[in-house]
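Data card: per-record layout.
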Amino acid sequence: MDFLSALKIAGSGLSAQRTRVNVAASNLANAESTRGPNGEAYHRRDPVLTAVPFEASLAEASGQVPLGPAMPGSNASATAVQVTGIQEDTSPGKKVYLPGHPDADPNGFVTFPNVNPINETVNLITAQRGYDANATAVETLKAMAQRALDIVR
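The structure for this 153-residue chain is written out next.
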């Protein structure tokens, strides 16, 4: 694997972890939202991450046809990660008896979002650690490139 491939892979990891943080923060921010634009309680969201052979993403970016296997899950040695979408969790939310709440149903129950703050906090911590690991990889690559330049001098 060459220097630029490693840098692109670490960069794709940084981008994916940033998306994970943004989605978890959005879930936490809406943990008590009982009515959204569609009139229903907020549903938690999860990013969908897919491994992409790096050669395929490089060929796609340059407008060339990839040489060799280009399907996710192929035997390519270097892969990047790509956010392919944000998926909504359709599991039902928690019903709480609050008859005076403006969003209560005729029986007095309010449906709260299916967001568990503890799970979202764990998602934030793991995304932060993944981001830190990728940032460390970028810093290591920069140090290696600097040392290579120093050797040439």
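Known properties of this structure: The chain has one domain: 3-31+45-88+115-152. Confidence is low (pLDDT under 50) at residues 67-75.

See the next section for split statistics.
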